[in-house]
Every structure is written in structure tokens, then in C-alpha cells.
Amino acid sequence: MIMEDGFFHADPHLGNLFVEPSGRIALIDFGMVGEVREELPDQLSRFLLALTRTGPSGHFWSSP
Predict the structure, then answer these.
(1) How many domains does the chain have?
(2) Three-class HEC string of the chain
(3) Segment 35-61 mean pLDDT
(4) Catalytic residue among 5, 11, 29, 42
(5) Would you call 11 a catalytic residue per the annotation?
(6) By the 8 A CB rule, do 61 and 49 touch?
(7) Positions of E strands within the chain
(8) Of 14, 17, 51, 62, which is most buried with the most CB atoms under 10 A?
(9) Is 12 a domain residue?
(10) Enclosing domain of residue 18
(11) Would 47 be classed as within a structural domain?
């Protein structure tokens, strides 16, 4: 949701989550939501990807 739409559910708890018969998780009660800056999803994706990349010495590296 954050990566596609730029907002997030700001009150996730068991009362706001349901599991549909298909197994898909459904959220309800969007009375509290937050927005993220337009560039944040891309920055977050690159950060998470960087966490999976380490050089031979175990230090983080970046490709040119």
C-alpha cells in the first residue's frame, strides 16, 4: 500500500484486520492514515535492497 499509493494505515491492530476466505488480509477503518513524501517509497526500496548487498568483507557496497 505504501509503495503503490503513498499512504499507510496509521492504526493497525487486530480489530482493524480481517482474513478473507481466500487468505488475503483486509484492512478496515481508515480513520487514521498518514501520507509519505513522493520520493520516500523509492528511497525505502533502495535502502532495503542495499541491506541485502554486502561486499566480500561483509561491508555494505554500492554499485556504480
Answers:
(1) 1
(2) CHHHHCEEECCCCHHHEEECCCCCEEECCCCCEEECCCCHHHHHHHHHHHHCCECCCCCECCCC
(3) 74
(4) 11
(5) yes
(6) no
(7) 7-9, 17-19, 25-27, 33-35
(8) 17
(9) yes
(10) 2-51
(11) yes
